[in-house]
Amino acid sequence: MVVLVSGVLLEELPSSTSILFQAYPGIKTQANRLVESECQVVSTGSLLLVTQREFAVTSPHDSSVQVLGTDNIIHHVALIIRHVGSGVTLLAQVDRYTEEDLTCMLAKIMTLIEPGFDDRFEIQLVGGFSDSRLVSESIILNTLGVLVCSQERFELTGLCVGEAFTVFRGTMPFPALRGVAINVKTGIVFPASFSHRGPDMDLRLARTLTGGEGVGMLDIYSPEREELRIGPFSYLPMRSVDIWLGQSDDFILQSLTPCPEVVTDREGFVRQVRDTLRIVKSHPYPSVTLFQSNSPRSYRRDENSGEWILKYQNEWFRGSSGVKPEAFQFNFYVKQEHFNNSWQLGHAAYY
Fold it and tell me: Structural domains in the chain?
């Protein structure tokens, strides 16, 4: 393995992110600059947003996507891998990460790199504030561990995680940022918020809500076709969906995040949970009702409006996804004491 931090070989994974920052103070200084940067609002016309356990890869030559982004990285981590010579860029949101995931991502990156470039990669991690349960710390160290064990050459150019991703309001820690993005053409990473998050978000979140820890990373973009492609995937029917829909807003909030006090848009969080549960209820077998012929739901960018429009039977339809496009992304931390076997959600991840 070859992982360089500020030009120095990282020979072994430290036991905490604090030790890593102490050993390489320059990387924390750079993280502070990111946190202090002005948050930019990214419009739909140039954005491709990834959510929980999704990734996308594209190049500076893409005419449909200029910005890759992700949001609500309170406990999850935005992983950015950029090929130095070509500018080919990957953005993923991870809450669990394996060697197989990394191998799949690098293979996708290599398909876009023309011959003649060195295989040098820069990586950045953003997200995961210092919570009292150490949920974020576990995710961060797991992700770094996979990278350290890889046979590829990586230079860690950004590490805005843990204490560097935390601000205090009084004595209470909060995430420093809610979203992050990278300009594919320039390679600049910046704090971001998003006016639109893309199509089929409820369906995409249903995949992780119902699937538990067995749900892997999903590649959602074809740079060759410049198409956003969702699925195909399936999930088990959820017998407890009506029970969940009948719960109070406070119960849903307290049950599905380990740190409800840092959720700023509580109404939006609960609304998204309920919208996703309704998708699961309406489409218990998505391979039949949403992914006919085992085909993905494909979208391309409309040249005039900049919106993603759906392909159906070889025709393109604006605003006809069949699933609500608006979404407030959320993630799941299931507190086991609230459930019994008859209505437990899939333990998808940590918020």
Answer: 2-197 (3.30.1330.200)
pLDDT in tens, 154-195: 999 999 999 999 999 999 999 999 999 999 999 999 999 998
Give how far Cα 188 sits from Cα of 62, 79, 80, 304, Å. Answer: 16, 14, 11, 26
Does the CA dihedral 244-248-252-254 come out positive or negative? negative
Helix (H, G, I), strand (E, B) or coil at 327: coil
Give me 3's structure tokens.
């992982």
φ, ψ at 344 (rounded to 5°):
-80, 135
Q: How far apart are CA 289 and CA 281, in angstroms?
A: 12
Q: pTM for this structure?
A: 0.89
Fill in the DSSP letter of residue 87.
Answer: -
Task: Return d(Cα 253, Cα 248) in angstroms, integer.
Answer: 9
B/e letters for 245-265, b = 16+ CB within 10 Å, e = fewer, are eebeeeebbebbbbbbebbee
What is residue 62's DSSP assignment?
Answer: -
Q: Per residue in 287-312, pLDDT tens?
A: 999 998 899 999 999 988 899 999 86
CB atoms within 10 A of CB 111: 10
DSSP-assigned letters across all residues of 172-207: EEEES-SEEEEETTT--EEEEEES---TTHHHHHHH
